[in-house]
Specification:
Pseudouridine synthase, alpha+beta
Length: 290
């Protein structure tokens, strides 16, 4: 049985299916020595290369689908490497054999909260795609004058530079003076969409935190900069949500508890160690440049 080339590359952990379509279109992929094109199909016996480097093809049944939830701090980039040397969301993730982590969407550098990673490129692509209408919920603090007419406009839709956009739900959660906290829900992942929607109404977003993706909320006990791997039940929740077959294997023990006090403390300790190592590395790099 043959499969689309971009799907095979995504499953091999080279990126999302959409990203792989772009790589193929750029002429960077070859199959058995010949430049590949969008629409090509492979059966897994071919020699596939990206930029001349051989790709280890992952059999769909060879390893279980894994999903991590990461509590992203502000100041981290959603890229694998940053030319300016800024920290990225991939820096703290565990190593994974024969594959790599794919981020499910992005959070901009000033946004914190729930970021999902998976080793299954097809799952990542479907969770991001607007056709599946997967809800994202954010806690947002805005500064400015808010009235009901403004909230109604944001619920019904406003025109942004890349088309109409709206919040599916807006819930006021408190505030003082001109600072107001809301929880907002939408089913798209356009660039800076939450911020741009509020800014279209001449109010400023001063804090933005993603708290939910689909029906799964990020555990409040997960420390900033820490990650936790989801168990089989939650992995299959996401797979069924986007019409993928369920998994029967998991790297996480079936009876493993959710984050308790001891586990939270251990994660926090690991985050601190990572920060110390990064600070030492930056100090050494500055000394070398001198």
């Amino acid at each position: 049985m043959s499969e689309k080339l971009q799907k095979v590359l995504a499953r091999a952990g080279k990126g999302s299916r959409r990203e792989m379509e772009g790589v193929i279109s750029q002429g960077r992929v070859s199959v058995d020595g010949k430049v590949a094109y969008l629409g090509d199909r492979v059966d897994g016996t071919e020699q596939i290369r990206i930029d001349g480097h051989a790709v280890k093809i992952a059999d769909a049944e060879s390893q279980p689908c894994r999903v991590l939830v990461y509590n992203k701090p502000e100041g981290e980039m959603c890229t694998r490497k940053d030319p300016e040397g800024r920290p990225t969301v991939f820096d703290r993730l565990p190593k994974i054999d024969g594959s790599r982590w794919v981020a499910v969407g992005r959070l901009d550098i000033n946004t914190s909260g729930m970021l999902i990673f998976t080793n299954d490129g097809e799952l990542a692509n479907r969770l991001m795609h607007p056709s599946h209408e997967v809800e994202r919920e954010y806690a947002v603090r805005v500064f400015g004058e808010i009235d009901e007419a403004m909230l109604q406009r944001l619920r019904h839709g406003v025109k942004l530079e890349d088309g109409m956009a709206k919040f599916n739900k807006i819930t006021y959660t408190g505030g003082e003076g001109r600072n107001h906290w809301f929880h907002v829900v939408l089913t798209e992942g356009r660039n800076r969409e939450v911020r741009r929607l509020w800014e279209s109404q001449d109010v400023q977003v001063s804090r933005l935190i993603r708290v939910r993706y689909g029906d799964l909320q990020m555990d409040r006990r997960l420390p900033m900069g820490g990650w936790v791997e989801l168990g089989l039940k939650d992995v299959n929740y996401y797979r069924k949500l986007v019409s993928l077959t369920v998994e029967t294997q998991s790297k996480v023990a079936v009876d493993e508890k959710r984050i308790d006090h001891n586990k939270s403390r251990k994660i926090r300790k690991n985050v601190k160690k990572h920060q110390q190592r990064r600070a030492q590395s930056q100090t050494q790099s500055r000394r070398k440049r001198r």
